[in-house]
Amino acid sequence: MVAKAANILHSLIPISQFNKGKAAQIFDRLRTEKELVVLKNNQPSAVILSPEEYTRLTEIEEDYRLLLEANSRLAENGDKPTISFESVIHDLGITEEELDYAEEAEIE
């Protein structure tokens, strides 16, 4: 718990640091830190994320949205019979190994 508090304190950046020309140094910290919290008047005002952390969080958000959609469709389906994943790929002549090596599809 103490280590987590120390990490949070270390991630705090007063907004005045940007006014002192230290923006490049601040952004360089994102190479080793996931996020930095910008303070204005000693209150959190913004969070700066590393590109990797931003990507991770947006992927989690997208996965969650897809999970909600899947659950909604399952609920709408009720007791209607379903087709298993294994049956679909078998009918299409695709193996799970082939799917593992396929590129990720963009689903809209």
Strand/helix succession: HEHHEEHHH
Any idea what the shape is?
elongated
Strand content: 5-15%
**Biggest sheet descriptor:** 3 strands, mixed
Number of domains: 2
Total beta strand runs = 3
Poorly predicted ranges? none
Count of DSSP H/I helices: 6
Structural class category:
alpha+beta
Please supply descriptive tags for the structure shown above.
108 residues; alpha+beta; YefM-like fold; 2 domains; three-stranded mixed β-sheet; 56% helix; elongated
Task: Outline the structure in words.
Helices cover 56% and strands 15% of the residues. The chain has 6 helices and 3 strands. A 3-stranded mixed beta sheet has the order 1-2-3. The protein folds into 2 domains: 48 residues, YefM-like fold, CATH 3.40.1620; 49 residues, no CATH class. It is of the alpha+beta class and 108 residues long. The chain is elongated, with a radius of gyration of 23 Å.
